[in-house]
Structures are given as structure tokens and as C-alpha cells.
Specification:
A hairpin with a 6-residue loop joins β1 and β2. The protein has a single domain, classed as 6 Propeller (Neuraminidase). With 156 residues, it is mainly β. The protein contains 2 helices and 10 strands, in the order βββββββααβββ. The protein is globular and about 45 Å long.
């Protein structure tokens, strides 16, 4: 799988990173890399991070909202760059493990489709509430909108 991230200003686009394999950075319990069906549905850019929306299409995907450091203008992300969980792995753990009882409380991030950063530095997160979208026939949780401080990761 390849991923190409581009960023630009004033209409210019330039490549800042590409990977043949993506590596996640979850704590114990999940391998650092594996074969997950991952599709990025959104990229949101702040002054120091790139936020990546990754709906859960397959079982076991460790995170659904991640981030990588934003490279300096003209530089590239390293080939071994890992994708970190946002705001932390605790928000992803229940859906990643597929625990039905944990999913039913609907308080974690289940399957993030879109994000948006506003002028106040808040990251708005749209979660569809459907884990393992490729295999799911019913919704586990209602859709929800969560708002985090983009820098600290605190729920607003």
C-alpha cells in the first residue's frame, strides 16, 4: 500500500511523505504493523501535526484517528514514520479490540471519517459509530461529534 501526503500554499503542492507500508504506534496488545485495510478519508493540518482520519474497515485496526509530525517546509517525513493515536490510545482501545460490551458504551472513538481544525485550535471529529465497516451490518453506536484541543488532546 502506498500513501502520498501533499501540502501546499498558494496553490503549490509538494510531496512530504510516502510509504509502502504504514506502521502504527499502539501500546502492548497490538503488533506495530500488520495488514489492515486502511483508507485515509481526511487529512487535517496544524502548525505542527498532520491528523489522519482512518475509518475502521477491518477488525483489529489499532487506531481510527492518528497523527504524524508536520515536516518543515521542503523536508519529508522519514520512511519509518509511525502513526500515533490521537488523543491517546485509550480512546481507541475498545473498538480496536472488538469488545462488544465496551463498544456499547459508545464513549470511545469507533470509526472516524472526518476532522476539521477551527481557528481556535480545536479539532472537530466526526465518528460514524460503525466498527469494522466492511463487515458490519448494523450500527454499534450512534454517530457523534467530539471536539478536542488539537495540541493537548483534551476533550472540550
Amino acid at each position: 500500500m502506498s500513501l502520498l501526503l501533499v501540502a501546499g500554499s498558494y496553490g503549490e503542492l509538494y510531496e512530504i511523505g510516502s510509504w509502502r507500508l504504514l506502521t502504527f504506534n499502539p501500546p502492548g496488545g497490538f503488533p506495530a504493523s500488520s495488514s489492515y485495510h486502511t483508507v485515509f478519508t481526511g487529512i487535517e493540518v496544524t502548525s505542527d501535526r498532520l491528523f489522519l482520519s482512518m475509518p475502521r474497515y477491518s477488525e483489529g485496526q489499532p487506531i481510527t484517528l492518528g497523527w504524524v509530525p508536520k515536516p518543515q517546509l521542503g523536508s519529508r517525513l522519514p520512511q519509518d514514520q509511525v502513526i500515533n493515536a490521537f488523543p491517546n490510545y485509550g480512546w481507541h482501545r475498545a473498538a480496536a479490540a472488538g469488545r462488544t460490551s465496551a463498544l456499547n458504551n459508545c464513549s470511545s472513538l469507533i470509526s472516524v471519517y472526518r476532522t476539521r481544525v477551527d481557528v481556535c485550535g480545536r479539532l472537530w471529529v466526526l465518528d460514524a459509530g460503525i466498527p469494522h465497516t466492511a463487515a458490519a451490518s448494523s450500527r454499534s453506536c450512534p454517530p457523534k461529534m467530539l471536539v478536542f484541543h488539537a495540541t493537548s488532546g483534551q476533550l472540550v
